[in-house]
Amino acid sequence: MGTRLFDLPHHEATERLCAGAIAWVTVNPVEYHGPHLPLHTDRLQSEAWIGDLHEALGEPGEALLACDLEMGVDPAFGPGSRHVPFRTVRDEAVRAGLALAELGATRVGFVTFHGAPLHNLALHQAVVAVRRLGVAAVAPFQAVVRLLLETSEVDPGDAAFAMLPDAQRPVVAAALPWDFHAGYFETSLMLHWAPQAVSADQPSCPPCPPFRPDRRMARAARLARRAGRHALADELDYAAVALGWQQLDPFPGYTGFPGLASAEAGACFAELVLERSVELCRRALAGSPDDDRPPMGWVGPLTAWGRVSP
After folding, report:
1. Is the pTM of this model over 0.85?
2. Domain 3-147+274-302: assigned CATH number
3. Residue 32 φ/ψ region, left for φ over 0, alpha for ψ in the -120 to 50 degree band, beta for the rest
4. What is the pLDDT of residues 36-85, one digit of tens each?
5. Measuring CA to CA, how many Å separate 17 from each of 20, 22, 129?
6. What are phi and psi of 60, to 5 degrees?
7. Within 10 A of 293 (CB to CB), how many other CB atoms are there?
8. H or E element in which residue 309 lies
9. How far apart are CA 85 and CA 203, in angstroms?
10. Where are the domain boundaries for CATH 3.40.50.10310 in the chain?
11. Are 202 and 258 within 8 A, CB to CB?
């Protein structure tokens, strides 16, 4: 799992940071992920992903887990979910980053597996604040969000679907772009990264019921596409589906096909997540980030930074 930075003697913690160890900060909500996954699903995924990144980046020793902020903006509805305002998440992430810089950190990673746009905008603002102090920083989950936004045409012949019956492969593949919460994608990742946390009843989970995307967002997406703003249209389509899904009653707490998920598919997805995120981390933590603003940045001003419900 890694070494807990704040469990080390103070002088040893500062020595590790001053020597250039990456200080990983996890920021994840307590959030309902259906009946088959735990409320700490996003934290468990974040810690496993950090292990993969640490190895891929060629870092020595164990990953250094600085702290875990148990909070998230706009979690899914459901028993146990805790909503924390945008400003609180942003301010606490900034505070954690600044404290690490004071301890001598030269590289900080803010890691989440929670895809709410405002949540990722909060982490991006923490990255910007830490960089102002000359500390290299990154929030790599935006690479995962972009991965989902770009999966409009998924090949059902991909290895991630190889273990499914022939008739189900095209159906599950077609639903993958909208499978953003506790469905085939995320449940498979959990079966790969943290199988002990997945319910034994997971294979009996029925598919998410059908629903209609939000009409206003869908109309905005069509207008954006006609205007040639295809990236924006993809984001608006994504938002339309997310808002439509939240109107399901009863609310299942998951999308897609969690009952068909497998550890084998999760290994494929974990490899893809790592492939999409490792170069982003390598460049940012070397102090040469690309334009790494998270997608769906328009949600910030549209909701007055969380003051208006999405």
Report:
1. yes
2. 3.40.50.10310
3. beta
4. 999 999 999 999 999 999 999 999 999 999 999 999 999 999 999 999 99
5. 5, 7, 18
6. -75, 155
7. 12
8. none
9. 35
10. 3-147+274-302
11. yes
